Fold this sequence. Notes:
Blueprint: H1 3-46, H2 54-57, E1 64-67, E2 74-78, E3 83-84, H3 94-104, H4 116-129, H5 139-148, H6 155-171, H7 174-184, E4 186-188, E5 191-192, H8 194-202, H9 211-220, H10 234-250, H11 256-264, H12 279-293, H13 295-300, E6 304-306, H14 311-328
Parallel strand pairs: 1-6, 3-5
Antiparallel strand pairs: 1-2, 4-5
Amino acid sequence: MPRRKIYRKIYQKGKNKKRFGLILKFLGICFLSFIFGILFLFIYYARDLPRPEKFLEKEFIQSTKIYDRTGKVLLFEIYGEEKREYVSLDKVPIHLRNAVIVAEDSNFYHHFGIDLKAIGRAILADLKLRKPVQGASTIPQQLIRSSFLTREKTLGRKIKEVILTLELDRRYSKDQILEWYLNQVPFGPNIYGVETASKSYFGKSASELTLAEGAILASAIKAPSYLYPYGEYLDELLARKDYILDRMATLGYISQEEKEKAQKEEIKFAGPSSKILAPHFVMYVKDLLEKEYGEDFLKEKGLKVYTTLDFDLQKSAEEIIKERAKTNEKYRAFNASLVALS
């Protein structure tokens, strides 16, 4: 081979090597710039964020309940925008917890607050249909969003959400996060937390719910103002209940037999209720409480007020009054009163 060709080949190799080196340097600079940019954004948005310890100091808004003297008869409940009764995780049956996890965050016990697999699935689904159709928010993300952040859809808010979520998941156990979530999340208009939802929809405590009833509550979380028992979309709610039961069986939370039994179970709802028992007495007590503590305090602090009223005697007295008032109608008298002395 002529010497000139050899020199040209060596020169070309050196030129290619130099070009490859420049490309590597450029890519390295881009990568480092990206990393430093991400770090800068995280540091910038992390400045004024609330501490994750705030959850330990957090007071969940709870309604005030007025009971009769036995403490078993609820006469009236005072609440504002959020009707809630806090309940510890050990009072929530395992099938209800699993139904919520399957419905909202099936990888809950395995991710670090952010579910990268779910994000990937959501991106692919959105690209396939060319519109946002699938969410990827985990239970910790939803908890952070509803507790500390606004609903604005901006890059800054999303970065804050990620930072707080990572810190929340790092500092607290999954069970503690799940307990906070189950008491924070809405299940319908003004209905917050599993205990209040259970009593509002089924007339019993969350600890007494069946598998099918638990799946109903888990179904409502997706769209609480749309998927709730007393709205127009009961069929959609029941269809989602069956879907969640299918998923629970597929993921091994329940057997095929348990799934089929729950899907066939007839769901009996308690019916909407805003009834006041012994209204004159209750309004008198409410007035005293408002003068002592203020209206906002009663709506948020979860007082349990045990009164002197014996509700069994109250019902008997109301029946007597009703009968006596009827006998007085012929005299054009429509009111009656009763005084009881012991």
